[in-house]
Specification:
heterodimer, A: mainly alpha, MetI-like fold, 16 helices, 76% helix, 0% strand, flat, B: alpha/beta, four-stranded mixed sheet, 24 helices, globular, UgpAE/MalFG_permease (chain A), cell membrane (chain A)
């Protein structure tokens, strides 16, 4: 019986295991391996077998200790991930709940609107915000404020450190990320039996009371999923940040997170140092694993995966 | 060696897979063609990658034209082989093109020919990504000797030649004649005064201040931005500093010169003569329009600006932005060397030659690559020799306002008849190349532009190069970050210099490759 169960389990789980192995496990092992080599400039032939032990980690920690920019990078990572995460999760929840109580056609239009940033090519989307927040009078925001007479000089938004920079990168990424939570929560809300809501309505409950007492408690596991997923995603995201920094819209120190630092080290400079970048990526992975674990523990993820009571062997 | 058994009788046939280059182009091209033909190759595929400003398309079409010229030689000599250029890849940003090449070369997907800044040559050579052509070039001494020697030196790494110069440029200080006239700034003989070191950055400051103070210009000085464009390190040379130590082979952080550079820029920015946020200005919407519309007295730019202004819609004073005309550029702009930092020092300019480089795997998309590797490489070398033909080089120079790299090309540019033929495209060129050049030629081939090139050629005698060192781009990046902070007033010039030293020392590998020399000068005055 046990062998049969194992066989059927293997059969159903093998595609997922293969996928996780190929796309997650092997790259992770490979990243760890590269971090112990002198790999640079993509020259696998020359460097991939040149093991240098902890050299890259020692170099990285030396840079962390002495580089005047690192403090800003670490602080930016914490603030960016923390605040954008709150916006993405609670913004998504708010949108899902908001559209739940209005008619379907309006709700669909609103959802589509919020999906646009995610559907736009990254370069185009970033360019829009580049011109919007540009620190001179060619910037849309400055131009409006100047015309309205609110300001007399253009404001260099992206150069006001740290909060001006942080506001822009959080705003731009928040707009992209909020749609993910919205979709998950909307889908979850659609699974809740309508009778519950109708009954509450009959009893005179307001939208807020229905949300607080019925809907939100039933979204707990989805909330947990979105929170963990978005946390890991934000920790490793960099494309929008890369462009905003590259185009000098935002201050480089306070516009760079650890993920962007890894990217720039691996691909951004004249000499592309993949060994050093891999060491930084391993560090980032450790932070991600620890952060994900803490999130799941705090929100008692294990309760969701308990076997349902009443099952008969 | 190929052997086989025909009709029961064993035969043995030796096939030649290499040719000793003689320096006689016709003879070598035919010999290589015959070897290919004998080995059953009738078609050789190559790809050409280039990058740069919109007018520099000859960086790719030069290869297309070279292929046509060799094909013609083969045809006339009964060699049944043809070169086909399969991929003509042209990217606007040369740094992006370099990064793409770097990632695709190990995969065998990068172009066979790669034109890019000499600044990337050391890394590419060090990694074995480009071909060492020293031996081939020895056979073509007569051609090599026609290139300006400093440019050949810039194409070397570790004493070996890794490419042929494709173009170079100077970075003049442009002065608006109309703005200068309004403040009584007499530009007569300014080039000589700058050459003699009589007109220094203190004078630039004084006139900039006057222009701004009198309200005739919004700014005194505008310059380029970014670290990959090494314009601003001219200040280091203008203050007698250096960036590289030939003996130790290390990069140099020359503290006194960098401090003076930062101080000058800081002073300009503090006094409102240079935008504090210039390093984040938009090229097309701010930097170029400010210059062509005469909203600044001085501008540090490149020679290529001259034709770029004639092809791009930067001038928006009359409403819809338009390019400016050759006579407008001539009327509005004077140009000189980058002045000396202070009296007693020399003016400078800076060049960043672009180089034809050959992929170390060139020709690998063709049959029998392993057997015929040497032949494919020799053919690739002949292609860049052909692409360096004086007329190809001269066309590129005229239409993109880059300086010619060969003496023969420089001579051609001053030939009025040849210029007229170029204007009407009455030249022996591939039709595809003509089609691609048509619009650019119509706009840029003009006696005024040819005169400009002739006028600025002397600047090469004063030229400096950014160090060809694999770690230089990382150091240049740090310079840019520090300067940005100084311009914005976030750091004083002293703090800017300290920041550079801290950043260098934070990376043990960079620190190992960099020497910090000198100290911040006390009691130094500017202006």
């Amino acid at each position: 019986m046990k062998g049969e169960k194992l066989r059927s389990l293997s059969f159903f789980l093998s595609p997922m295991i293969a996928m996780v192995g190929i796309f997650y496990l092997i790259p992770l092992v490979f990243t760890v391996y590269i971090s112990f080599t002198k790999m640079r400039n993509w020259n696998t032939e020359k460097y991939l077998s040149e093991i240098v032990g902890l050299y890259n980690y020692q170099r990285l920690f030396h840079m962390f200790q002495h580089d005047p920019m690192i403090r800003a990078i670490l602080l930016t990572t914490v603030v960016f991930v923390g605040i954008t995460l709150l916006i993405n999760v609670f913004g998504g929840l708010l949108l899902a709940l908001g559209t739940f109580f209005i008619n379907e056609s309006s709700a669909s239009s609103i959802r589509l609107l919020w999906l646009l940033p995610r559907m736009s090519p990254i370069a185009v989307y970033s360019l829009v915000w580049y011109y919007f927040f540009h620190g001179s009078d060619i910037g849309t925001l400055n131009s409006i404020l100047l015309k309205l007479g609110v300001v007399s000089e253009p404001i260099p938004w992206g150069q006001i450190t740290p909060w001006g920079v942080w506001s822009i990168i959080i705003f731009v990424n928040g707009l992209v990320g909020v749609s993910f939570g919205m979709i998950v929560f909307t889908s979850a809300l659609n699974q809740i039996p309508r009778e519950l809501v109708i009954a509450a309505r009959v009893d005179g409950a307001s939208a807020w009371q229905i949300s607080r007492k019925i809907l939100i408690p039933m979204l707990k596991w989805h909330f947990l999923y979105v929170l963990t997923w978005q946390f890991l995603s934000l920790l490793t995201t960099y494309p929008h940040l890369f462009l905003l920094v590259e185009w000098d819209l935002v201050n480089r120190d306070y516009g760079t997170t650890l993920a962007l630092y890894v990217f720039n080290t691996a691909f951004g400079r004249g000499e592309q140092d993949q060994g050093l970048a891999a060491a930084a990526a391993v560090l980032l992975s450790i932070i991600g694993i620890m952060g994900g674990y803490v999130t799941l523990k705090v929100l008692q993820f294990e309760r969701m995966i308990h076997e349902p009571r009443g099952d008969v062997e | 060696m190929a052997s086989g058994c025909i009709g029961g009788q064993e035969t043995s046939e030796t096939k030649i897979t290499t040719v000793e280059l003689s320096g006689d182009f016709l003879k070598d091209a035919v010999a290589i063609g015959k070897v290919l033909e004998e080995n059953g190759i009738n078609e050789v595929k190559f790809s050409a990658w280039g990058s740069g400003d919109p007018n520099s398309v000859m960086r790719v079409h030069g290869i297309v034209e070279a292929a046509r010229r060799i094909n013609k030689i083969w045809e006339e000599n009964g060699v049944n082989v043809k070169i086909i250029i399969t991929d003509k890849h042209y990217a606007a940003a040369f740094q992006d093109a370099y990064q793409e090449y770097l990632s695709k070369q190990p995969l065998g997907q990068a172009g066979d020919f790669f034109v890019n800044s000499y600044a990337f040559l050391p890394t590419l050579a060090d990694e074995g990504y480009i071909l060492d052509i020293t031996e081939y070039a020895n056979a073509y001494k007569s051609v090599i000797e026609d290139f300006y020697p400093s440019l050949i030196e810039a194409s070397k790494f570790d004493g070996k030649l890794y490419g042929l110069p494709q173009d170079t440029e100077a970075r003049p200080l442009y002065i608006r004649r109309d703005v200068a006239a309004k403040i009584g700034f007499n530009l007569e003989g300014i080039e000589e005064k700058v050459k003699n070191g009589e007109f220094t950055w203190s004078d630039v400051y004084q006139w900039a201040k006057k222009a701004k103070g009198n309200g005739v210009a919004e700014w005194g000085l505008i310059h380029r931005k970014g670290s990959a464009h090494p314009d601003l390190i001219q200040f280091i040379f203008a203050f007698g500093g250096k960036l590289y130590n030939e003996e130790s082979k290390k990069l140099v952080v020359d503290v006194p010169a960098i401090y003076k550079w930062f101080y000058v820029e800081w002073k300009f920015a503090q006094d409102g003569l240079l935008p504090e946020d210039i390093m984040s200005w938009d090229w097309a919407k701010q930097i170029h329009p400010t210059i062509v519309e005469g909203r600044t007295l001085f501008d540090i730019g490149g020679t290529w600006y001259w034709t770029e202004w004639q092809t791009k819609d930067y001038y928006g004073k009359e409403g819809t932005p338009r390019p400016i005309k050759p006579d407008e550029v001539q009327k509005w702009f004077a140009y000189t060397l980058f002045p000396a930092g202070e009296k007693g020092l020399q003016p400078v300019t800076l060049s960043q030659p672009f180089v034809w480089m050959i992929n170390s795997k060139a020709g690998q998309q063709n049959p029998k690559y392993e057997e015929l590797e040497e032949i494919y490489h020799e053919l690739a070398f002949l292609m860049i020799i052909k692409a360096s033909d004086p007329d190809i080089n001269a066309i590129h120079s005229v239409i993109s306002a880059h300086l010619p790299v060969r003496k023969a090309a420089a001579k051609l540019i001053s030939d009025e008849k040849w210029l007229n033929d170029l204007k009407s495209l009455n030249l022996d060129l591939d039709q595809e190349v003509k089609d691609n050049l048509k619009d650019i030629v119509a706009t840029t081939v003009h006696p005024i532009n040819a005169k400009f090139l002739a006028d600025v050629s002397y600047m090469l005698e004063y030229t400096k190069f950014a160090p060809a060192h694999p770690k230089y781009p990382a150091l240049a990046d740090i310079f840019k970050e520090a300067l940005d902070k100084v311009l914005r007033g976030e750091m004083t010039p002293e703090e800017g210099v300290d920041y550079i030293i801290q950043k260098v020392n934070a990376d043990p590998e960079l620190a190992e490759n960099v020497e910090v020399i000198g100290e911040i000068p006390k009691d130094w005055q500017f202006p």
